[in-house]
């Protein structure tokens, strides 16, 4: 059985903030990053949701963490489980503003960040299924600008890595 972390980015809703009122922010996509290995992004950028609405990406991706082919990812997961003070123990989701067509002078801009702790999944022995997580403003980490609905199924892979740690 190939061990993997399965990630789904279901939808995004924004609360009233500088983001909703900023006319230059029109299209959004979401990037998901595991430490410095891997960045995946939703193939579509969608029009910014307005008051109370959500935009639906329904995008899923798989990170393989089997011993044979994905050693670096696996070693990283080991360090997540073994080093309690490792700061980067989370999957990081970044909400990115995609400049409108014809606005070449504007660049993609990170507008918000959301996190899922892999260590917490292991500690609670529970995957994250269709859960709303807070999106924090990239310019003010204490301000929540929205909710991202995600699924992160990592428990099986983390248990397997944990077993291997015990046997090392």
UniProtKB/TrEMBL annotation:
One CC-aspect GO term: photoreceptor connecting cilium
Gene3D superfamilies membership: C2 domain
Biological processes annotated in GO: non-motile cilium assembly; retinal rod cell development
Superkingdom of the source species: Eukaryota
Annotated RPGRIP1 C-terminal domain residues: 3-164
GO MF entry, a single one: thromboxane A2 receptor binding
InterPro entries registered for this protein in UniProt: C2_domain_sf, RPGRIP1_C, RPGRIP1_fam
Any one Pfam family match given in the protein's UniProt record, by short name: RPGR1_C
Name of the protein described by the UniProt record: FTM protein
Annotated organism of origin: Orthonyx spaldingii (Chowchilla)
Taxonomic classification: Eukaryota, Metazoa, Chordata, Craniata, Vertebrata
Gene that encodes it: Rpgrip1l
């Amino acid at each position: 059985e190939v061990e993997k972390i399965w990630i789904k980015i279901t939808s995004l809703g924004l609360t009233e903030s500088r983001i909703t009122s900023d006319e230059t922010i029109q299209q959004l996509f979401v990037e998901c990053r595991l430490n410095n290995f891997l960045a995946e992004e939703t193939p579509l950028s969608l029009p910014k949701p307005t008051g109370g609405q959500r935009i639906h990406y329904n995008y899923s991706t798989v990170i393989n963490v089997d011993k044979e082919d994905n050693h670096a990812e696996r070693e990283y997961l080991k360090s997540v489980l073994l080093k309690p003070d490792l700061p980067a123990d989370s999957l990081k989701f970044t909400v990115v503003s995609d400049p409108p067509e014809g606005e070449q002078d504007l660049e993609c801009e990170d507008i918000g960040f959301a996190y899922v702790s892999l260590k917490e999944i292991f500690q609670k022995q529970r995957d994250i299924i269709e859960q709303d997580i807070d999106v924090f403003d990239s310019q003010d980490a204490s301000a929540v600008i929205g909710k991202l609905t995600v699924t992160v199924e990592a428990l099986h892979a983390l248990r397997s890595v944990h077993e291997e740690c015990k046997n090392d």
